[in-house]
Every structure is written in C-alpha cells, then in structure tokens.
Amino acid sequence: MKSEIVEAFAEMAKERNMDKEVLAEIIESVFMGMIKKRFGTTDNFDIFVNFEKGEIEIYQNKKIVEEVTDEVCEIDLESARKVEPDLEIGDDFVEIVDPRSFGRRLILSARQNLSQRLKELEKESTYQAFSQRIGEIVSGDIRQVTVREGVYLVVDRTEVLMPPSEQIPTEHYRRGDTIKVLVKKVEQTTKGPQVIVSRADDRFLIRLFELEVPEISDGIIEIKAIAREPGERTKIGVYSTDKRIDAVGACVGMKGIRIQSIVKELNNEKIDIINWSSEPEIFVSRALSPAKPSRIILDEDNKTVIAMLPDDQISLAIGRGGQNRRLASKLTGYDIQPVKESEYKDLVKLERLKDRPLTTVAELRPSVVRKLLSAGLQNVRDVLESDVQGLMNIRGIGPKTAEEIVAAVTKELNE
Across the beta sheet with 221-229, what order do the strands follow? Predict the structure, then answer.
C-alpha cells in the first residue's frame, strides 16, 4: 500500500544520502509504536517497508477459532473464509492492516516522531561524514558573515562555521563568494554537531602545497617545519628524499607558477621556502633569510641561538615588527637573538668581565669580599645574579652595604 510517509522519507534519504536500511528500521520502530498504542501488543504483527515503491505493509497474524475471545489474535472461520474459502479451524490467517486505519491523530504523531528521529539521524550522519574529512580541503559558499560568530558556509548541503580565529585577518568575506577551507574539527554541541573550518590553520597551507606540488603528495619532498602568521608571512622548511630533485625549486615551480597559485589563494601572503637541514646551525642560518648570519652560536641545552650578523643586516634579520626573527625561531625551535658583529665583540668582553674574581674588584673592601666568598659568591657574575635582595641574606651585609657591592661591580664592568 502506498504511504505518503514512506515516500516523503525515501525522498529525504535520497537527497541526503542516508542509509535506507537504517531509515527503514526507524520507520518500522515508529509504526510498531502505533500498533502498540492501538492493539496493546506487537507480538503478532510484521512490517515491511519498500522505499523503491514507496509502500509500507503491515501484517496481523491471527489464529482461526470457532469462537473469538481475543480480536487481536483470533478470527472466526466465517470471516476468514470470505478472504480464503479453503481455510479451516486452527489454521493461521494473515490480515493486511491499512496504515490509514490508525486514524489522523496517530498518523500525525508518527510524522512528528519520524521527523525528530530523522533529524537525529541526520546529525549523526553529518558528524560521521565530516569526522572522516578532517584535514581535507573543501569548497564552500558563504551564506552569512557575522562579526562575533564568524563566517557560515554551506559545504555539501551542510552548514559549517569558520570562527574569527580561523580566518585570515587580511581577508574580507562576502556573502555568495565560494572559498576553499580546511575541515579542522567537528564539535558536539547541544544543537548537534558543528563543523569548524579554517583558512588560518597551518594544515591549510600544507594541503595547498600538496595540491600544487605533486612531489609533495608523492612523498618525494617533505614539509619538515612550518611557521605561519596568516595573511602576513610564512616560512616552511622542505626536504627532498631524492637528491636529483631540488626541493625549493620544485615548490616554486617553472617561472614561479606553483608558488604564485598558493600565494594567490592566500590573498598574497608572503611565503619563504627554505631547504631544511638536520644541522641546526645551517637551518637557523637559512631560516633568518634574507639576512645572512656570519656566525651562529648554539646553546642546545637552553634551545637558544645567538646569530651574529653584519651591522647592515641586523634589520633584515629582525624584520618588520620582529616578524622575521619570530618566524625563524618558531620554524627552527630555537630562541634566536640576532646580534650585530660590533655589539657581539662588546658582549664577549662583558661576559669575560663578569667572570672576574671578586678579589680583583678595586672598590670592594677585603672584609666584604671575605663575607661574599664565604657565602659562595666567587666572581662578578655571582654578585649580579644575587642582586641586592640576595646579598642582604648574607650574614653581616645590610641594605646599604648590598647596594654598595652592586654599585662597585657594576662600575667595574663599565670601566
């Protein structure tokens, strides 16, 4: 028998690519609920849903008896023989139940129930579908732009959100525009799953490189490190597993066509492509490009680097607003301190002065030196690191004496 409910939901299942078997189970469940309400039991009922024909068939199994005491499970012989003349007492009889016989009220209730279950199914389907697409680039049409919540897009008939933190700050989004975004995550909220997309995430840029540079998607070139300030500038370290292939050249492409395509997609974000090296000194030196350090002094324990540069290149190394130094530090994992060559010489001299024994500081009285030595302070550096407050903790040294000690060693450094 044709059913408007089945036809309507079959159409929804087709439009939203839903599993018909799951949908059929839901419809059967809802109709079983209607049968329970009307007949008080579902034990002797069977339901078959046919989405192709848009039909639902409900069968009520009865036993043929001489005298009916239970109209739900039994039927008299005369009534049964009106359908099948050859039946006898004790035989089974299958009666077809017309869904419309449940009445308008039950049908409306079933529609509401089905609609609710379908929404839940659709939410679960969305969550599962996009959970499997995390890290993938998709195209979406901008539906709404809000300052507070962000940009709402429609991707494959699903509304997704790009919060302000996931947008490229220098971009302006307009309703109706089609843009590429990265599926970043799917969050479960009280209103159902919320798909979060991004253009600011590092993976968005990595995926763009994978699309434009076949050597990356093939695994011949690896992106070893990335430091990005979305919309402004990015540094990436690339490495070729095939010595015959130049990693930087492959990423740039013939006449720069590959990198230009990526830069255009990122609204003219500057991209520095650097050959990655397993030797930190070399990688740090390259990371500070376009500046060219004359010397790199590495402190592996503290993850710091002093990069010595010709005086006229210090501004290049630091970059506008410190951006070049900041990105180079993030890319390499070292806190890089660019220093002018002229300043470095003074710095070395100063460090040497800090190692001078306290006994050589002219303005320190011998009695004071003895107190400092007994407290474990051996040189100028120890005193400077203790400062006035630390010196006051030494027996026999008060606030005034502590200040005089610090002034004496400071004067020694400045002479």
Answer: 221-229, 233-240, 270-275
